[in-house]
Amino acid sequence: MKLILNGEINIYYVQTLCMIFFPGCKFGEEAQQDENAPMLSLTLTDTEEGLSASVTVSADGKTASAVRVRPVKEGESRDKRAKMVCGSAIIAACGELLGYRPSWGMLTGVRPSKVATELLQAGVSKTRVKRTLSGEYLVIPKKAALATDVALNEQKIIEHHFSPKDCSVYISIPFCPTKCSYCSFVSYTSDKLLALIPEYLQHLIADLEKTFARIRSLGLRLRTVYIGGGTPTILTADQLRLLLGKIAELTDVTALEEYTLESGRPDTITAEKFAVAKEYGVTRVCVNPQSLCDEVLKGIGRSHTAQDFLRAFEIARESGIHSINTDLIVGLPGDTFKTFSKSFDSILELRPENITVHTFCVKKAADILHQGSQIYSLRGGDAGKCVDYTQLKTQEAGYLPYYMYRQKNTVGNFENVGFSLEGHECLYNVYMMEEIHSIFAVGAGAVSKMVDYRPIEGGKPVIERLFYPKYPYEYLRDESTDEKIAAMEAFYQRQKLLERE
């Protein structure tokens, strides 16, 4: 897509808004040389009234324009004012050209509930928050209500589980039995790479020993442990026992608020593995079908069937593990409202403690982009109807929306939402997404986040990130753990977190 920008404008923000209306569009030199590429021209100017944004957008021989003015408001920065006026002008012009109103208006960030959270913390009423989201940010009313409800539920969790000395641990197992066609995560499936698992575990355990030792020496309180991937249950029962047994040696797992094993793929789940998980204190597992339509599963490269999922879910239930999460994806290639709603109804009948509904996201590294599929979609086909269905049915069944995020290039620009029965919310997800305390991450592709949620000086949270090498074979040669641990301790000392409660 060709962009012509005049004035002090955040180009990334403009690109993100354009991608809502032109899914999959590219920018830069390649777009400039494409005579058929859509074009957007935006001019931002200072006026006596405030800031004025003028937008003209052209595509397929059609053109539309819009002008918006935003007056100066007390306490509002110029950057925010520029975003708001540019966003409203782009939404108006593109919406007129394409006859389309995006559900989330000009909200483009990962957490659409962030604005609602900030307003609620400032003492704004729930009703007024919804009105602000709809009126100022152009969010459609039902999404404004969802964002507000999620923000309220998140705040209940945060306010009761917050201390500057809290932390969580994330452990990466970046291996899978096969790779789904839509996946872009760092996960490895070939026999050669899977053969690295024994050596990988030994290296991982050595790094975990150092990390847990520093958590203890700093006097931090470990709230949650999350073992993710990849597919952690690709480990054999003996390998799982080795890992979980070591974690139990390094920390009192009975004191954790939550201990998650992201098992994920039904074809890797056995009763023996879940018995090991239960024995060593795991309190939450994920058994993720993505769909219960075998044709859809085959189309996306999943190596299991709907029946395999039902078998795995029964194993999870019989294991006695406290909480079971299931993931479903809206908008998968070949899925329709009829097949998706049938899948969702079947999941509700099983009554898992958590249900996470993702919207199909097209990632640049996904294999499906090379399969000739027409997967980018402005309106998303049945996806919107499916998303609405999940939110209506979960409400009727007594689930609460407590966790939400969004990604670029989702079908129809829809959201990902976590629903939970009361008392079974995934605390790690909230802590991680809301960035209220540090996450010590270990393993290939793992990213630690050192967080000061409420700095002494006030203002925004202070966050520093530490990265492990992306690939397992690089991680096996990595010797940076001592350096990372020193950086973690320096952060705590610098922010004086150890002196606060």
Account of the protein in words:
The chain is an alpha/beta fold and 501 residues long. The chain has two domains: 2-100, Ribosome hibernation promotion factor-like (Double Stranded RNA Binding Domain, 2-Layer Sandwich), CATH 3.30.160; 159-440, tm_1862 like domain (pyruvate-formate lyase- activating enzyme, Alpha-Beta Horseshoe). It is 39% helix and 21% strand. It contains 17 helices and 15 strands. The protein has helices at residues 11-21, 29-32, 78-98, 114-121, 126-135, 141-160, 191-194, 197-217, 237-250, 271-279, 294-299, 306-319, 337-350, 383-396, 427-434, 472-475, 481-494, and strands at 2-6, 39-46, 50-59, 62-71, 166-173, 221-229, 258-264, 284-287, 323-330, 354-359, 400-405, 416-420, 438-442, 447-452, 462-467. A nine-stranded mixed β-sheet has the order 11-12-10-9-8-7-6-5-13, sandwiched between helices. The chain has a four-stranded mixed β-sheet with strand order 1-2-3-4, with helices on one face. Helix 9 (237-250) runs parallel beside helix 10. The chain starts with a strand and ends in a 7-residue tail after the last helix. Mean pLDDT is 91; it is low at 365-373.
